[in-house]
Every structure is written in C-alpha cells, then in structure tokens.
Amino acid sequence: MKITTDRINVNSKAIKLAEYNYETNELKLIFINDREYIYESVEPFMFEGLRATESVGKFFNKYIKPLTFVKL
User: Fold this and answer.
1) Which residue in 7, 29, 33, 53 has the most C-beta neighbors within 10 A?
2) How high is the pLDDT of residue 2?
3) What residues in the chain have per-residue pLDDT under 50?
4) Do 25 and 39 meet the contact criterion of CB atoms below 8 Å apart?
C-alpha cells in the first residue's frame, strides 16, 4: 500500500500541524490560531525539510510562504 499523505506535529510558535499530500504535492498547514492554508506545488523534499529543520518559522518564511496558497 502506497502512502499518499503524511502528517506531522510541528514544533513552532505559529504552526501546529503540517499535512503533505504526495499525490497532489499540496502542503496543508494548520496554525496555532486554527487558520488553515494549503500551499500548492510543494515538492516532497520541502516537506522533509520542514520536518527536519531546527527553525520551522525560518524555513516556512524562506521556502513555503512565497508559494501559491489557498486559505480554507
């Protein structure tokens, strides 16, 4: 069975959850204030970088925030 989504709890002051869809390359982020955003065209290595980084906020601001997103 192929894994299509992966969800991680995020150690951040602003973001609490990240969910990545490997089929659509979409990254869903849920922030501490319960706002939800889906970032489009996120490559898998970027999700892995988010998982591995020491500073989620810095990584988000540099690599993910500039991407196209939809607010849910």
Assistant:
1) 29
2) 74
3) none
4) no
Query: In whole angstroms, what is the distance from residue 42 CA to residue 29 CA?
Result: 12
User: Smallest Cα–Cα separation from 18: which of 62, 68, 66, 59?
Assistant: 59
Tokens representing 4 are 């299509």
* Cα angle, residue 32 at apex, residues 61 and 27 outer, rounded to 5°: 55
Specify the pTM.
0.91
Strands (E), the chain: 5-9, 15-21, 26-31, 36-39, 69-71
Cross-strand bridge partners of residue 37: 29, 71
pLDDT at 1: 67
- Maximum Cα interatomic distance, the chain, rounded to a whole number of Å: 35
Which residue has 């959850």 as its token pair?
17
